[in-house]
Amino acid sequence: APGASEVVQVFHAPGRAVMVYAQSELSAAQFLQSDLVTGARSRALRFRVLQNGVWSSPQVLTSNAGGEAQVALAACPQGEPGCPAGGSVMAVWTRDAGSNVFDYTFEIWHAFWQNGSWSPPARLTDAGSGTDMHPQAVYLNGVPLVTFTRSEQRSIGAQETRRLMYLRPGGSPQEIGDAPAGIIWQSLQRDDQ
């Protein structure tokens, strides 16, 4: 598949997993001849499901809406407190909402996998005149938590304005106090203690 990258997978029940990745919707020839902007904007999300030791064929999670990237998954595994029977998975990703990847008009989107299907993808953040990117997700006692980087400006040179943020779906983004300034990438892990 042309331009397939950022493959992530999680198990949500014994022997059951979901894999999500970004892939260009261009043909192999078109992708190889495309410029950086065209290639980036052609990316959409695909998924596959593992059941009984067999991966399904690729299926569409998102269609090309301007470019999808930086996908992360979090599982709420079957049997853990607060998690549904069969478990669930939250996918978060960055969508390029502008006309050019260098406009830095990025938004955080999400969808939930449960009972064999995805919820409709929905925007999770609105950065106003800024930009949101690099999401991560985790479940805590059956409740999803998302962290991401927010920049007050739409410029690669505006690194000093980048802040580490968190939110729960349906809530408002909050800045993580005492985090270093200029955050670019971050990682989110669950502590079972």
What does this structure look like?
- With 193 residues, this protein is mostly beta strands.
- Helix content is 6%, strand content 46%.
- The chain has helices at residues 28-33, 36-41, and strands at residues 5-13, 16-24, 43-51, 54-55, 59-60, 68-76, 88-96, 106-114, 117-118, 122-123, 131-140, 143-151, 163-167, 174-175.
- The longest helix has 6 residues, at 28-33.
- The mean pLDDT is 87.
Q: Given the C-alpha coordinates, what overall shape results? A: flat
Mean pLDDT: 87
Strand content: over 45%
Structural class, by secondary structure, is: mainly beta
**Total E-strand runs:** 14
Calculate Rg over CA atoms.
17 Å
Note the main sheet. Answer: 5 strands, antiparallel
